Amino acid sequence: MTSALIAALSTACAIWLWTGPNTATTRLDNLLTSPTDHNPTWKALLKLATHLTTTPTPTRRAEAWRRASIELCQSLAAELSAGRTPSESLTRALTAVDLPDPTILRPVMAAARDGGDVCAALTSAAPQAGGEGLRQLAAAWQVSTTAGAGLASLVDRVAHTLRAAQTHRQDVAAQLAGPRTTARMLAALPALGLLMAAALNMHPLSFLFGTLPGLMCLISGITLDVCGLWWTTRMATQAQT
Questions:
Q1: Is the whole-model pTM more than 0.70?
Q2: pLDDT tens digits for 228-237?
Q3: C-alpha angle 188/192/198, rounded to 5°?
Q4: Which of 68, 82, 115, 200 has the greatest count of CB atoms below 10 A from its CB?
């Protein structure tokens, strides 16, 4: 009877281990599905990562405005070629284009709809970074209004200029991708050196944080590393603009 009980218990344990929940999987599911109740730190990290990945940087925002300006000029030229009035064409183009921040160009749409000063509205609404296209469009609108030139041809020329500038920036960015990667790798080499020293049992952290010469070396190295990254990024940004 004892052997039969042991066999039954062994069978039940085997069935439980085979069909029961996996502890590691259960913990992982709880960690991912309910971070508030089980791990508030994980939820905070997820929020921070989401914020960093979804918040556009100034460079990306400027590029988005440049692309939107090209699309706006192309759409406006198409509407003007269809025989519509400039105000109606601009209103329809603003509605059709996917803008990074449509609220900024609401005064422009109101000026075009109500017969206001479209040139001044475009100039004031153009962002500082990435608003070159809108300012050129405002200049073309001003020339068409004062000199009586054809707005469709002017807008088409502005769109062509913006496309050429965008292509140039993309070519420069592709050529600068290698130097930027090299600079980042060189900036990470000191950390690799510390890992190699620690692997050789040389205790680099004790020297850097425990002695005055080590602390001075640490501060100087971090300063030079940050300055090098900043200088490389500055040169690449100036070459791309």
A1: no
A2: 888 888 887 7
A3: 150
A4: 68
User: Range with the lowest mean pLDDT among 33-37, 79-83, 138-142, 210-214?
Assistant: 33-37
Classify residue 98 by its DSSP letter. -
- Tell me how far CA of residue 37 lies from CA of 6, 22, 23, 31, 44, in angstroms: 40, 20, 18, 9, 12
Mean confidence (pLDDT) of the chain: 78
Closest listed residue to residue 79, CA positions, set 92, 66, 69: 92
Q: Residue length, the chain? A: 241
Show Cβ contacts of residue 134 under 8 Å, excluding neighbours closer than 6 positions: 65, 69, 72, 122, 123, 125, 126, 127
CA distances from 196 to 67, 189, 201, 203, 208 (A): 46, 10, 9, 10, 15
CB 84: neighbour CB atoms within 10 A?
A: 16
SS3 101: coil
| Predicted pLDDT of residue 160 | 92
CA atoms within 13 A on the CB side of 24: 0
Q: What is the pLDDT of residue 34?
A: 46
Q: Which of 157, 133, 126 is nearest to 67 (CA)?
A: 133
Amino acid at 53: T
How many Å apart are CA 44 and CA 49, to the nearest integer? Answer: 9
Tokens of 179: 């130097």
